[in-house]
Amino acid sequence: MNKFLKENKVFLAIIVGALIVGAALYFGLNKDEGGKESSSSQVECSAPSKVIVTKVIDGDTVVVEGGYHIRLLGIDADESSYPCYDVAKSRLEELILNKKVRLEKDVTDVDQYDRCLRYVFLDDQNIDLQLINEGLVIARFYPPDLKYQNEITEAEKTAIDGKVGCKWSGAAANSVNTENKIVFQWEKLTSELTSLNIIDACQAGNYYGKEMIIEGKVADTYHDSKSNTVFLNFEKAYPNHCFTSVIFSSDLYKFVQNPEDYYSGKTVRVKGQIKEYQGKPEIILEEPSQIEIGE
Question: What is the pTM of this model?
């Protein structure tokens, strides 16, 4: 062994030196200029818990002192050019603009757009819940941020049953896109003709066992050739869809030919009892009268 080391000491020295240089380069690349290890973690929200609201973007997004954008948790408001955008934004301005509020975090700190995710309180008043109570926004929760889910979803059910506010009083019965001059009108599946409440497709999971009218865009379709069953997935493509309408083989002959193509990309309303299948809400379509395309 000693003889081997003596005869190969130059070679061994080169190997040891290469290892040292490689290690130095590896750890050096994982340090920033201040000598701390770099991090790929998401941007953190530095907004203080008590702060003044300086601007209202829409019914669920505000700006506070320091320029931080705050996205209110548990609710979803209409975007610009949709029916309840102006009234929700105006009401949020009345409630909190130029006032000091308390921001309360759930689990997730910021969203993909680096907006702070918070519940907003004015004194002891939950502003997110207030907008739901007034029927100006809809409830929307994504795990793991579920802290006030029970209170907000129950308040929404009460608002729907009472036909309260822009969302549920019929003021937004027709979905209007003024930018593109598109108006959706409904001849059959309306509250007046059916005495049923109309809800957003992504809210269907809150009403299992109830008969409702669901409105939304068919974002994705699938025709299972083995079972000859058609699936219409709403708002997002499978498996991220929030609601499905199903036409089984036994009833398929009653509908238009190739319903998976006919309804794809269209905004529709469907009527029926909301059931749960593999954790997702669905309505089974047995008759063509259960579905209507907005025109």
Answer: 0.55
